[in-house]
């Protein structure tokens, strides 16, 4: 009888021990998932064009998902079993240690993202163009882009002749030339232009974040420094109406192997800014569906 009571006491102690460890595991998994939510919120705020999640962060998030599944499975197995075995206790203790390790790893001190070296620009929705005229224009522009002696190219012509359509095709083709250029930036200027807007658009494309209270010259310095660190870049200003100072915006004019391209209605504007002029004439373009 005494032996039977002793065994029962041991079983009850074991049961209490498992319950305590399971509750401890549940508290820790809740803490871990809170850290996961915080990391995902920070990640959403930091992910911008030309940025990607750090590998260590991606692995950590995957491991959190795995441990969540394992804890859920373990909880179900314990709930379904009436047997109080040492195996369950060992499994619970193992999961507690794994969760604690993930909690320690979650203390990321720096940004969760890094520059995405593989992403060099944004693919644009294009209109399919046919005809010898457009073919000749594309070939001429492409030839100058591949020529290291030509740094600034001005594509000009009347409104509606297809300047933007041609340059969108060029933009998408440049994204395939990863050995030639490492960054392709498309900026739509339009008639309502402002230096602040051009700086913000440029910053968004290259992953620069402004605090909000910098003056124009400070922003220009940040952009200039960031672009100067690029090996070779292409910046396309679409629909430029008036002369702009590239220096005030923060764009290096003389960067080996880099290119500046603009589309405009004005031949004089191309000359004033020192751009090689390429005229697109009206007529000869056949349009198809968007692609």
Describe this structure in words.
By secondary structure, this protein is an alpha/beta fold. It folds into 2 domains: 114 residues, no CATH class; 164 residues, Rossmann fold, CATH 3.40.50.300. The protein contains 9 helices and 9 strands. Helix 8 links the parallel strand 6 and strand 7.
Q: How many discrete structural domains?
A: 2
Proper CATH architecture of the largest domain: 3-Layer(aba) Sandwich
CATH-level-4 superfamily name of the largest domain: P-loop containing nucleotide triphosphate hydrolases
Unreliably modeled segments: 1-9
Strand tally is 9
Distance linking N and C termini: 85 Å
Could you tell me the mean pLDDT? 81
Quick description:
With 291 residues, the protein is an alpha/beta fold.
What topology emerges from the helices and strands here?
Elements: H1 2-46, E1 51-53, H2 55-80, H3 86-105, E2 113-115, E3 127-130, H4 132-146, E4 152-156, H5 163-174, E5 183-188, H6 195-206, H7 216-228, E6 233-240, H8 246-249, E7 259-264, H9 267-272, E8 276-279, E9 286-290
Parallel strand pairs: 4-7, 4-8, 5-6, 6-7
Antiparallel strand pairs: 1-2, 3-9
Helix pairs in contact: 1-2, 1-3, 2-3, 4-5, 6-7
Core attributes:
alpha/beta; 2 domains; Rossmann fold; disordered N terminus; 5-stranded parallel sheet; 291 residues; 9 strands
């Amino acid at each position: 009888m005494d032996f039977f009571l002793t065994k029962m006491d041991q079983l009850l102690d074991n049961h209490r021990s498992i319950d305590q460890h399971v509750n401890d595991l549940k508290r820790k998994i809740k803490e871990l998932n809170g850290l996961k939510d915080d990391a995902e919120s920070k990640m959403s705020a930091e992910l911008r064009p030309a940025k990607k999640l750090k590998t260590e962060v991606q692995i950590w998030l995957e491991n959190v998902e795995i441990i969540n599944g394992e804890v859920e499975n373990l909880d179900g197995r314990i709930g379904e079993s009436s047997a109080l075995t040492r195996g369950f206790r060992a499994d619970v203790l193992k999961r507690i240690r794994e969760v604690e390790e993930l909690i320690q790893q979650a203390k990321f001190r720096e940004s969760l993202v890094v520059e995405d070296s593989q992403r060099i620009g944004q693919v644009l929705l294009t209109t399919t163009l046919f005809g010898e005229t457009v073919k000749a224009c594309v070939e001429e522009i492409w030839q100058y882009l591949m020529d290291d002696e030509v740094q600034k190219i001005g594509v000009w012509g009347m409104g509606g002749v297809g300047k933007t359509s041609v340059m969108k095709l060029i933009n998408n083709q440049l994204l395939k030339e990863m050995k030639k250029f490492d960054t392709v930036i498309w900026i739509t200027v339009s008639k309502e232009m402002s230096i602040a807007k051009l700086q913000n658009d440029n910053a968004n494309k290259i992953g620069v974040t402004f605090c909000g209270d910098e003056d124009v010259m400070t922003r220009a310095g940040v952009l200039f420094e960031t672009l100067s660190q690029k090996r070779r870049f292409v910046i396309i200003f679409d629909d430029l109406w008036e002369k702009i100072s590239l220096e005030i915006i923060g764009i290096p004019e003389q960067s080996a192997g880099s290119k500046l391209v603009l589309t405009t209605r004005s031949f004089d504007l191309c000359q004033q800014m020192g751009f090689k002029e390429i005229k697109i004439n009206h007529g000869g373009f056949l349009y198809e569906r968007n692609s």
